[in-house]
Amino acid sequence: MSETLFTKIVDIENMEKAYKKSLKGGEKYNKEAMIFSLNSTYNLYRLRQSLIDGTYEFEGYIHFKVYEPKERIVDAPHYRDKIVQLSINNILKEIYNPCFIYDSYACIDNKGTHKAVERISYFMRKAAWEYGDKAFIIKIDIKKFFYSIDREILKKILTKKIKCKKTLNLLFKIIDSADVIDPLGLPLGNTLSQICANIYMNELDQYCKRKLGLHYYVRYADDVVVIVKNKDEAQRVLGLAKDFLKEELHLNTNTKKTKIFPIDQGVNTVGFKTYKSHRLLRNDSKKKIKRKAKKMRRLILEDKMTVEKAEQILNSWLGHARNGCSYNFINKLLEKNDYICLDHKGTFKVDILKLQKEGDLDAV
């Protein structure tokens, strides 16, 4: 890559595209976003100019907790830094997406968890046809993945593809900003963390596909599923993959979640328990939606949640659930929460009349 790569990043159209993307969802109501938007043309010009003349400085992180899918600390950049990262991300995608293997599914346009689980299902059927009942699944999970990424190794990997010094300096400035948080890892809230994680794990993908010649291989973020012909081959491949992760990427596997097992047992990953013939919702997904549905009634009646927000949450889960065999569970959910119903389009709706029935609150 030549110096023109940096020119693409600071191109005004690219930065305007990044700015518009930064306002999606509820982000436009963020205080810093609202202040920036008061004079967006001038502020975007100043931000762009600081990148061009080299005076741009990263402003640090905002720390907060999230509780889904599990409790953890998120370190998010300030608003103007987010625009910069989105501008970089737009260009990095053009460079790296063609380099990723076909069966990498996290944070890539037109991919995602449902495409990943469909591919796993397909590979399980194909491997069972090719290898028979002796086929084995390898499931690899990285221990504290984002928190364990070695930033020096990441920077070396980036230099393999990117030769533009200005771009590398900007990337390294953002990567090194995590020094204030921890000596290792990438901040979960950084926009660039997702593509950097994919670039990092692409080293394992290439090793497994090119060196080990694995055909039935799928990766979503740090979750890897491989299907091989028998138990001995599974043990051999898992050993080689663990050695590569440790020696080349300084990553350790989660011993509880990294294992091998016969194909008939199915595999519990990316939101489903997947078998050759069907997929089931994971138990934790069922528990979460049951808990949420029970709380929603009270929250709506106490004006702590709008009906629209409740329906948004319910239908988001429904879209996920329908990628598996969830018909019976959905019916049971409706039976236990009579204020929720399915409309003629097959989407969840909140029945206001049933919600407000006398005694509803006490029944929770």
Distance between the termini: 61 Å
Mean pLDDT equals: 92
Share of β-strand residues: 5-15%
Structural class: alpha+beta
Reported for the largest beta sheet, the result is: 4 strands, antiparallel
Radius of gyration: 23 Å
* Unreliable runs: 358-364
Outline type: flat
Helix content: 40-55%
The helix count comes to: 16
For the largest beta sheet, what order do the strands appear in spatially? 4-5-3-6
Q: What is the β-strand count?
A: 11
Q: Write down the secondary-structure element order.
A: HHHHEEHHEHHHHEEHEEEEHHHEEHH
Short recap of the structure:
This protein has 364 residues and is α+β, with helices and mostly antiparallel strands. The chain contains 16 helices and eleven strands. The chain has a four-stranded antiparallel sheet, with helices on both faces.
Describe this structure in words.
There is one protein chain. Helices cover 54% and strands 13% of the residues. By secondary structure, the chain is of the alpha+beta class. A 4-stranded antiparallel beta sheet has the order 4-5-3-6, sandwiched between helices. α2 (12-22) crosses α5 (79-96), α10 crosses α11 and α12 packs antiparallel against α13. The model is unreliable at 358-364 (pLDDT under 50).
Any descriptors?
single chain; 364 residues; alpha+beta; four-stranded antiparallel sheet; three-stranded antiparallel sheet; 54% helix; 13% strand
Describe the protein's topology:
Layout: H1 4-9, H2 12-22, H3 31-38, H4 40-53, E1 61-66, E2 72-77, H5 79-96, H6 113-131, E3 136-141, H7 145-148, H8 151-161, H9 165-176, H10 191-211, E4 216-220, E5 223-228, H11 231-249, E6 259-262, E7 267-269, E8 272-274, E9 279-281, H12 283-301, H13 307-321, H14 327-336, E10 340-342, E11 348-350, H15 352-355, H16 360-363
Antiparallel strand pairs: 1-2, 3-5, 3-6, 4-5, 7-8, 8-9, 10-11
Helix pairs in contact: 2-5, 5-10, 8-9, 10-11, 12-13
